[in-house]
Design a protein that fits this description.
Layout lengths: L1 H8 L7 H10 L5 H13 L4 H13 L2 H4 L3
Helix pairs in contact: 1-4
Amino acid sequence: HGQADAIASRMVGRADAVDALYALVFNRPPDDSETAAAQKYLARADPQQDRALARFVRGMISSNEFLYVD
């Protein structure tokens, strides 16, 4: 949780948070469907943006894309 919280705290208030998170975590930009899904989640998630972003980052760093290198 600590790493996700630290990453998320850097993104609070940024208009480009989704793009920045994908660049930081996956080293690539999100595709259109990923951007839409992330924005939808963040818009309806916890009103405290830092908590919502932290949960989103935890999901990203738990993904197969983050855990395995092709």
